[in-house]
Input
Amino acid sequence: MKSAPFTYVRPASVEEALHVLDEQAGAARILAGGQSLVPMLQMRLMQLDALVDINRLPGLDEVRAAGAETIFGPLVRYATIERLPLVAERLPLLQCVMRFVGDPQIRNRGTIGGSLAQADPTGEVPLSCLALDATIVAASVSGTREILIDDFLVSSYTTALEPGEMITEIRFPLAPHHFAFLERNRKHNDFAVVNVAVVGRRGSDGGWSDLRIALGGVSDRVVLAVESAALLEGTTLEEDAIAQAAQLALDVIDPPTDVRGTAEYRRHLVPVYVRRALSKLRDDHEPFDA
Ligand SMILES: Cc1cc2nc3c(=O)[nH]c(=O)nc-3n(C[C@H](O)[C@H](O)[C@H](O)COP(=O)(O)OP(=O)(O)OC[C@H]3O[C@@H](n4cnc5c(N)ncnc54)[C@H](O)[C@@H]3O)c2cc1C
Output
């Protein structure tokens, strides 16, 4: 099957791209890596009047440090994130999850902005951006606004972006260096059945703070297990506390049944994977943050 006809637009600037999005009033989409959009068009799951190709716009594929913040352009590709020393140093969780996304061909083209706009509830990028408390900068002809990741991700394949908006930056605050990531899938690089990303800071007394536990594949969007993290704040992640927090994570999930697994199977997996991820967080790292 081939896509329905559409107009292909290659703007020369972000401003021009925003004008096209505005003129098309919801009937245009940005083309980034094309790894989700092109298959959807070809299967006619989506029809558009115009495709706005931002791939040649300068400056959108850069990562930079700005004080404690790390700022990504929307066109930074998975393959770049996989190998960039700045990401390894500042956001090791984000770098770690990349090798779980598709295969090398997908990672050579797929972008951080495209993955966030796609908002797949099993996606490793939305999951790690939620764990890392990212902020999305969205621009339109009316100006720019900042959207916290928790507000940005609305439901399955739905974000808080308005039709005329484009992601222009993804900003990460200083991240706790300690992290763990675990994923259950049917085969390597398949979309996840369930995935878990945790970050936290371990003090010199062994106590943990700033814990965030993000869960994927468990609801219509990736979710934070806020109460589980709160329960562990200040503890040394003893087995009993971890077991209690893992069980509590069941309160934030509403898992689907789909080709990858039943809701019941996902309910079984969540406490197991949260417990394993928290144990890994505690055991895999140096005694305390520098
Ligand atoms: C075989 C295969 C396996 C895959 N496996 C995985 C996997 O294991 N895990 C996973 O997470 N993903 C997986 N994916 C999906 C992949 O990660 C996509 O690359 C990603 O979901 C979309 O990123 P993209 O840059 O290709 O965006 P595109 O496909 O170009 O766009 C996706 C959506 O985002 C919008 N968009 C893109 N950029 C912007 C922007 N700057 N502002 C506003 N809207 C924008 C587009 O208009 C479109 O609606 C797989 C895809 C394939 C084909």
Remarks:
- The longest strand covers residues 194-202.
- The domain at 7-52 is CATH 3.30.43.10 (Uridine Diphospho-n-acetylenolpyruvylglucosamine Reductase; domain 2).
